[in-house]
Amino acid sequence: MRHVKVLPDVWRMCAFTVCLSFLLCHIYNPIRRAVRDGQKKTLIYYLFQDCDSFFNMCTSFVTFILSFFNATVFTRWWKLRELCGTVNGKTVDTTVMLSAYIKRREDYEELLRLLWLAHALHVTSIDPLVTSDPEHAMERVLRGLREDGLIAAEECEALRPTTLATSTPLSIAYGWFTCRLRTAMLRDVPPSLHSGLLQIVQANISAMRGAASDVLMYLGTPVCAASRALAAASSRPRPQPSSPPLRCRSRTRSSSS
């Protein structure tokens, strides 16, 4: 409700418009009756007539502009919903696919962690509460991800020079995921399935990364504050069924397994 400030901002203008309209009606009505009864038309009468024609023309123009503006805002807002849905849906699709092919629990948990890391970076990059302070946004996000066990210390150092205003952190996280997937595939997946599985997963990653980048592009070139608020509200992830927490495993332990 912090964005709802319409009435406090416009009540003075509405009160002034009502008072001015009431005053002008009292001025114009006697002149109109006099002209209707056959008296001579005065300069004030012609001024009111010209203003009436001008406002009728402006009404049509303003109606067209507002209709076009509202349609543009709604189209951008709906496109943002579709892009965020692409990221969410492809993430779930990739998770289900990994559960069917990756047999080692450590590899599966590590892949899920990297996938959730990329998704968390996407969600935080479009949260106005996080991005309101760009200078310290990345540090706060990395601290929260570290507390949640979604990112290792060396990964924090790799992401710290980047910024949430671009898709660079997402691309890096998806790169880590792809490298880990290649190692897990060589262990568990039969060679005959490598090309098909890698092609499907890579298509999902490309779709997720492209959709997340487009979201940042739309938010970087906004039409108005209302569209940004709607996009942020619609992109918050819904609660998912609880699952065992995934913690970072050191690179040394992962490589030795």
Low-confidence stretches: 227-246, 250-257
- Biggest sheet, in brief? none
Number of domains: 2
Number of strands: 0
Task: Give the CA-CA distance, first to last residue.
Answer: 51 Å
| Tally of helical segments | 10
Beta-strand portion reads: under 5%
Mean pLDDT: 80
Helix-strand pattern: HHHHHHHHHH
Helix content: over 70%
Please compute the radius of gyration using only Cα atoms.
29 Å
Shape: elongated
Q: Which class of secondary structure composition applies to the elements?
A: mainly alpha
Give a structural overview.
Helix 2 (43-101) runs antiparallel to helix 3, helix 2 runs antiparallel to helix 8 and helix 2 packs parallel to helix 9 (225-234). The longest helix is centred in the first third of the chain and has 59 residues, at 43-101. With 257 residues, this protein is mainly α. Residues 227-246 and 250-257 have low confidence and may be disordered. 22% of the residues are buried. 78% of the residues lie in helices and 0% in strands. It folds into two domains: 6-65; 74-256, no CATH class. The protein contains ten helices and no strands.
